[in-house]
Write a structure and sequence with these properties.
By secondary structure, the protein is of the alpha+beta class. The chain contains two helices and four strands, in the order βαββαβ. It has a single domain, classed as 2-Layer Sandwich (Alpha-Beta Plaits), CATH 3.30.70.240. A hairpin with a 2-residue loop joins β2 and β3. The longest helix is centred in the middle third of the chain and has 14 residues. The chain is globular and about 35 Å long. It is an enzyme of class 3 (hydrolase).
Length: about 90
């Protein structure tokens, strides 16, 4: 059985690298807001995603935070205004 995690990724990178980081993240999880992605992902894809991100960022300037949850049911999310994507429809 594949180990699937629900993750939240928030990043703050130099303007020159925003599109590169965004492009990597959208391959694996769903874009929610500026600099914020979330979704279900396998452990193998988490490793690939982190590897790809490390190739795109400057570790002395940029910051990427990844929050790991065992499932989406252990967190509570409230949205004021519109939600851009329904993460529960995220394909694995």
């Amino acid at each position: 059985m594949r180990s699937i995690k629900y993750i939240l990724v928030v990043y703050d990178v130099n303007e020159k690298r925003i599109n590169k980081v965004h492009k990597v993240l959208k391959k694996y999880i769903i874009w929610q807001q500026n600099s914020t992605f979330e979704g279900n992902v396998t452990q193998a894809n988490i490793k690939r995603m982190i590897y790809e991100l490390n190739k795109k960022i400057n570790s002395k300037e940029d910051s990427i935070l990844i929050y790991f949850f065992n499932s989406k049911t252990v967190i509570r999310k409230e949205v004021d205004g519109i939600e851009k994507w329904n993460v529960s429809s995220n394909f694995i």
